[in-house]
Amino acid sequence: MAIRRMNYTKRIDLKNSCVRVTLRPHENGVADVFDLDLDLPSDLPGDARVILEAYRSSPPARMRFDLGTVENRKILTEPERLLSDFSDEMPAPLFRLKVIDAGESDGRILADARQIRPATALEDSSNKQGLLHIYHKPLDGLVWELQIDYPGYGPTLWIDSEIPEPTEFARDPRFIALVYPEVLRLILQHLLIDDPDTREDSDWGPKWLSFASKLPDMIGDAPPILGDTGDREQCEAWISRSVRSFASTHGLKRPFELVEEDSNEV
Amino acid sequence: MKFRRFNQHGLDAFASELNRLREDSKHDFAASIVTDPRFSEQLTPEIEAEPRNFETRMDFSEWLAAAASAAGTEVPRNDIGFWAWLTAALFDQVCPKNEKGARKVGAGARYIPDLSRWTRRYRHLLANPYNVYLLHSNDPWRAAAVMVNPLDQPGELTEQFTARLDLITCPGTMALASRLFIDPVSRKRRRGASGTAARRLGKLLNQYTRTWDLASIDPSDFSHKLPKEFKRFTV
User: Whose CA, among A65, B109, B148, B204, lies 20 to 30 Å from B37?
Assistant: First the structure.
């Protein structure tokens, strides 16, 4: 049965496509600067104020940027768009855009877009974003750790920041071969077995399942639903097939085959 | 005291000391883990400060901010090993003995930060006040409502506000809570500013943030929008 939703406040839920935030490094090298591309609906009052907030929950931080009014947008200079409160190695902040009434109900939110994840200048203009977020922090002895549901981001692969050149390390074909299949297995296991609600309730769950279902060996092999179209064993078997298909499609074994050839030559 | 960070052995040793205290509240806390080089390493860049008696979470935060500023660096806020070490170094203030010489140890996340769960990451008794202090560093007393308690007793009001990012990061909300619950003369919490009132205000403001942009509203104007039950705090 469809859930009936009430909107007593008449607040307009802005689509994320109305607000595009892109991050790029600032020349000071310490923090990023954001660029904003805004396309607001035409039925908002011209004198309503437009505010952009950047925020992160841990460690908590929030910056607020006054963008003027709907009719008279303020153009912020580059230094004014510097995310100085987020100048560390933690993931980029999320953004919220608010359009606020300046009339009788001063302060009332007329429209907003929440949890806007910024694109980076390296991502293509079609806003194509990766499924897995990779960040660095000290892991106290571990080389990598998967956080399945990092708030606002979804699956996040943490790599120990104390490893020399951790960014390069994440692109090492041997690291990819050893770690990525396990990452895929853990995420699919979470979606199909450990917490099946996230398969639909989360923003990232459907994207990961779609990714696995579209692997060459998996087409036509729909993911089972625990307790409905499959039991735990069938779910595990489906996950194993997906992980193998992922590994073979991307030729993950190749770096090790080369090593074998080299060692035969010696 | 030069600040250090626990390694994994140090974290394990500290967790084990906490467990011993849970089993025996009069267990003699092994303070040697703080200085034993097997368990920790010095922070780089160095930060140094002499501990003193902190009456409030605000006192502690000011002390830590001054230490980092004097060293020309920043506190490693994401470093679990650092926060756990500092907690062990200040253990008598974070988990003081009562008159019978017993300590009451709370949940682990109060002493060793648990950053993996959003329901626990704000519970650390030292990282939490310091993060709040930095959020409101241009006017720390704006956050007085959650900063005037002792380190070991953050209280219900602190719990209600620091658990909600929208509230704790909002200058208007914090100014409103402090205006309601802090006596401007004594700079202490007013009577009744905890328990039910704290829980109710936290929930109300959480609702209001969905409809109102609290940051752009004057706290004194907004206090008149609150239900009657808060009138006793607005007089």
Answer: B109
